[in-house]
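#help-structures
NK: newbie question, is this the right format to request a structure? protein is Outer membrane protein beta-barrel domain-containing protein
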Amino acid sequence: MSMKSFLNDSVTLGVGAGAYHAINENENGASPGPGAGKFAGLVTIAGSYRFSPNWDARLEWNRVVTSYNRDTDVILAGIGYRW
């Protein structure tokens, strides 16, 4: 992921891309277990704000991009400690 800092290193913004592999679990099939997998794209946009010298808050939006109707959005938020 590429990150860029702003406002005296208090705010960072980043973007990333990669691959995601999903495995279909066929629990209702004649022989349950891992089925065929599919590759999809994963795109992330992230930002963080450092509110003290060691603590920051972060927000990330992840998008799984598929070639079928299973696109998914995951939003993560949290705090972190930098040392």
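mod (FA): yep, format's fine, and the tokens are attached above. The chain has one domain: 2-81.
NK: thank you!
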